[in-house]
Amino acid sequence: MSDPKIDVRDLSVFYGKKQALFDVGLAIRERRVMALIGPSGCGKRTFLRALNRMHDLSEGARVTGSILLDGEDLLDERVDPVEVRRRIGMVFQRPNPFPKSIFDNVAFGLRVANLVTSAGLSDRVEESLRAAALWEEVKDRLDESAMSLSGGQQQRLCIARAVAVRPEVLLMDEPASALDPIATEKIEELIVELGKKYAIVIVTHSMSEAARVSDHVGFFYSGKLVESGGTKQTLESPKEKETQAYLAGRFG
Amino acid sequence: MKRVSRGDWLLSAATGAAVVLVLGSLVAILGAIVVRGAPVLSPKFVFGSPGADPADGGLLPVILGTVACTLLMTVACVPLGVTTAVWLSEYAPRTSTLAGIVRSAIRNLAAVPSIVFGLFGLGFFVLFVGGKIDSVFYAQATGPVFARPAILWSSLTLALLTLPVVVVTTEEALRTIPRDVREAAFALGATRLQVVWRVILPHAKSGIWTGVILAVSRGAGEVAPILFTGVVGWQSRAPTDARDGFMHLGNHVYLLATQAPDVERAQPALYGTVVLLLLLTFSLNIAAVILRHRSRAGARA
Amino acid sequence: MVPDWPVVLYSRENSSGTYAYFKEHVLKKADFVAEAQSLPGTAAVMYAVSHDRYGIGYGGVSRGHGVRLVPLVSKTGMDVLPSARSASSGEYPLARPLLVYRTTERGGEVDAFVRWLGERPARALALEAGFFPLEEGT
Amino acid sequence: MTALARPVRGKPRPSLLGSTATPRWERIVERLIAAVAFVSVAAVLSILAFVAREAAPLFWEGREHLPDLILPRQWAGYDAPAHVWQPVGFPPKHDVVPLLIGTLKITGLAMLVAGPIALLSAVYIAELAPRRVREVVKPAIELFAGIPSVVLGFFSLVFIAHFLERLFGLTYRLNALVAALGLALTIIPVVFTVSEDALRAVPKSLREASAALGARRWQTTLLVVVPAALPGIAAAFVLGFGRAIGETMIVLMASGIAPVVDASPVSSARTVTATIAAELGETARGGEHWRVLFALGVLLFLITWALDRMGASAVARLRRRLHGPEAES
After folding, report:
1. How far apart are CA D133 and CA D122, in angstroms?
2. What value of ipTM does the predicted structure carry?
């Protein structure tokens, strides 16, 4: 197997004096979907947010260990977190489009990074909207406010926005949890599709979703990574007893 | 029929009466003034040039002076205030000592009496800053050039007075922006400045406008800070230079009410001027209230 | 029959020249009582006195449009009204000249202005504004 | 394995360490933003410094006059030692006590009028009013704050003075009470807004608990909600008091500005602010009178600063009281 895209070693996260994540090690591979599961408060979201240095934005948060992106530690204090976030995109739990037009939402990341000329901009916007399976629905109303879209469309717009800068890794924080079943299905199809191109890390509270979209899973419990492995094998025959108990629905 | 306890009735009656009293006096004040002042507002009275007697009206230079002073003040205070609010809300750690110092300075600034701003404007801007400019650049001049009361100094004094209004309103507007929006922008690889410029400020636009309008309204109505820093009682024209003295509606009300050559004859002009001043500040306030209401409703939606 | 009632004094603000003059020449350098109301202008004094049955005040005659002037008793025992003649002759006891100070050297525009002040058009303007102009040649 | 492992569109990605997404000028702009934020700090400090600068020589130039600023003295022409403010006189008399008395008298009266009215209104709006009424009345009361004080001064001078004269037949048409009523109009919105906020900050659970125990509405309001909000209400009064002390134009126009030393609410009064506004314009720079006026400015600054601190700490106390010691300040 090739080197992992992201190699996390001994990752611990503290909020003030409280430790939220304990010495987590996990490898995330190119063109694979990794699902993070576990009961609420288990640290899976904390882990996800460490990957693109979102903790830099919260006061009192401290991260130790290392996260190697293609062999380089992105936690190194000399690394500009902005650069990290341009390479590692993120989609949030609740759709959070900017109160701007559909076009401007998708173009945002390109504009702030000054990535393409204005001539190339509309091509990239179209490409990204197609990649998010939204193009056909919005191609005639790109100038309308993103707020006019339905919840599911907004979330696909956020995905289009995230892939527009052609990130190397895509992080998704329960991207379908705020949506209705039909929109959820569309998002899940999209994740599978995108998983062919990107390394994707997705936090989910739904075992069935993890089973449908992911290649690997990591099970978190009380701030620790309890076990990880291939999705099918881990979900069907977990090794650890916490995982077994969780999957049996005894807590969560 | 529902039985209302006597205590409940008494409480409602007492508190309701207080509200009626307050609103009643608001209506009474505005009514008494507008009824007498509104008929005076002819185009000649408002936009004419003044004659020998202020009682004849001709408020154009007074209005121009007020507008010029207020505009200068706004130009000085809004960038300062918005930047301060942005620093407090987007840059400074919420619990940092430095932010605490700035916050308490803003509070103090808001509490300083307006007449003390007048003393400060005279002591600092006119005498100190103006004096320094004169001694460096106008050493040959026979009289003071910058070291005398002028519209520039009045505007800067007012800018500091209204600074807290802009800071507080803007910060409040920034605080209503959901965390999601900031995180989305950061996650897309925007730098902090890009987040502020492209997301936060556009998002807070109506809140910032509310602050600007409130500041303008406050600044336009203050008299005490300009008494010694630039306002003049009577001149025939509007200021054309930042170093000129200027006439001001608020000061004009004060003068007409207390120093008109012929009090009885000046009454109509006085009411007319008061209505103009109220029109200026009050309409701005109503606009701010509506805008604020809308932006709050927008933040909830 | 007027009941016993305190007389209300209306004075000018202590930043005015009229105040200082009155204090020096009428009160002979004594203080006003603390209760004297300080008003910012002669007009305000007139307004206040006209609305107060028991009020008394003083002010510059130039601002005295539409009021009846009260004669004062001069040194010679005559009732004297303020006028151009009684003021410049010194007969009216409370006349005071309006002085023009200059901060610049002699010559130039300022000289011309000061000369102009003594001429006929300026005197006409002064009269119009309610002041008593200088006698010709003074 | 190298940092260039994955070529993107033919272009190699530069190393994370080597690339700076945030340009250097942005760091400079950040510094500037922080610097601008401190303008307010500089402003507060220089207000104190530059007002004090004009006042300070008082303490080494005319030291023998210092006791006269606050102590009664036997002046020629007076029957007994007295507090006299006659800064243009022979000799000038700069006793500030009459001004402090005037200030306290007028602000005290104004608080006496404005405080209860504002508090009752706040109780009505926060506790009793239907939502639709609140949404109209609250901004309407706040609009009061938008009336320039010179307009309220004019209103007091003409209407309130006339009204009181008709009602009571007062000796002094312009007096402390007239100014205080005008002043009350400016502090009502302050006291109202802050008290209303404090009342509304009281958690709903307290009201429900009280109701569940069988308390009537008035009992809940007066015995539970108002006491819980008390520190906030105290802050409202302190802030209103600070505002009243600093107000200038109303007292300048409506108080009769006479430096009287007595306790009557209907005699004229001269406040610190009105004194500065009325006298500074024609005062020679650097003279003793000038310095005393600036010293009064310093005094005003310090008083309002102290009141504001008191108000702020009362609000913080309210927050701790309602939300426990963990509450963010």
Report:
1. 13
2. 0.86
